[in-house]
Amino acid sequence: MIFILFLIHLLSRGVGAEQDYILGSRAPNDSCDDINNCRRLFDIVWGCATTIFAATWVSVHPNVPPPNQSWLALLWRRLKMMLVAVIAPEVMVGFAARQFVMARSWSNEFEISKTHGFFVCMGGFVTHGKHPIVDRNQLRIYASAIKEIQVVAIKDKSKGDALSKAVALLQGMWFITQCIARATQRLPVTELEVATLAFAVDPIMLGTPDEESVVRRSYFPHNASGDPIALAKFSVRFRSMLGDPSSKYHPFSSNSVPSFFSVSYWNNSYKEHARIPSVVASFVGAIFGAIHCAAWNSHFPSADEKWMWRSGALLVTAVPLIAVLEIFVLSILEERNYIFETKFFKVAFVAFIPLYIIARLFLLILPFTSLRTLPQDAFVDVNWSVYIPHL
């Protein structure tokens, strides 16, 4: 957290125009007449695009898909989750946090490993009738059978590639290093790079457990009765993504769990687990917005765009913190059975949602519109030689 605050402070100073030069700063007359001393617009966009893709690709761990899906369908399924990660990364963080909390809960209650718990949350264990085993009552029946499956066998099904995760980590760290170097040398950091920095920091900060990458199933030779098999409806998937406890998902009427399914939010027995993931997601969302504040003094094509960026960054930072406050206030009001006050706070917070969506749109669009009039110094490359010890 201290590192992130220092990074924001450094960048907000570095992207400002007129400041005293420090060690490693470039001369004021540096230009991009020499190809070896500059970067192109394509280099800026390509570096940001590859970093965002790497960060979102390794941070997305889909639930187990329906059986017999083609590789194209599986790819499209993952790309859709990546799109959600780009638009609302805090949703992905909340999803991962809910699965982590429930995996630990299953592990403690039924004396199974956390890896087994993750596999349960993902819909990896199914009955002979191909219904996901995700309900508490189901686990009471199948817990002993689940224990017989070795952790190594589950991890062997994982498609998580350690090499791809390492490459993504290195790409993110290299991008962060470049931004810091540009800030220390008083070179402009474009709005697109600041926005990319937010995506690069979150996966490195949170990590990515391999247990969540399982894409195949383990079947149990037990018969189960239930409704005819049907895929979960879109409304159920959408409400599950937002962690809505009113989403009526029934494992015996489906052959897979929704993409953002989380047991803790549809089973009232686990309502107490809802707060922790929500708080984690809110704090990550606030950090994501705070990093955008690093471009507070950056160059913008117009004053309107500058204030759109500033207001968007402030809202994206503030609204998640307001959500954290609401979570604790509602927990107190619900314990004291203050029904009217509880409804009032829920309605009051809903009023912030449209503003938050507009702010996120600002921060998604402005980094690209600002590319049309970048300052000349934005194309000057970092002078790495000043950091190499020499006599």
Question: How is the secondary structure organized here?
Answer:
Layout: H1 2-14, H2 41-59, H3 71-87, H4 89-110, H5 114-121, E1 125-126, H6 136-147, H7 151-156, H8 162-184, H9 191-206, E2 218-219, H10 234-241, H11 275-292, H12 303-335, H13 339-350, H14 352-369
Parallel strand pairs: 1-2
Signal peptide: 1-17
Keywords: Membrane, Signal, Transmembrane, Transmembrane helix
Transmembrane segments: 41-60, 81-101, 276-295, 307-332, 344-366
Summary tags:
mainly alpha; two-stranded parallel ribbon; 14 helices; membrane; transmembrane helix; 2 strands; signal; 391 residues; single chain
Structural notes for this entry:
- The protein is mainly alpha-helical.
- It has one domain.
- Helix content is 58%, strand content 1%.
- The protein has 14 helices and two strands.
- It has helices at 2-14, 41-59, 71-87, 89-110, 114-121, 136-147, 151-156, 162-184, 191-206, 234-241, 275-292, 303-335, 339-350, 352-369; strands spanning 125-126, 218-219.
- Strands 1-2 form a two-stranded parallel ribbon.
- Helix 1 (2-14) runs parallel beside helix 11 and helix 3 crosses helix 4.
- The longest helix is centred in the C-terminal third of the chain and has 33 residues, at 303-335.
- The protein is globular, with a radius of gyration of 24 Å.
- Residues 1-17 form the signal peptide.
- The chain crosses the membrane at residues 41-60, 81-101, 276-295, 307-332, 344-366.
- Keywords: Membrane, Signal, Transmembrane, Transmembrane helix.
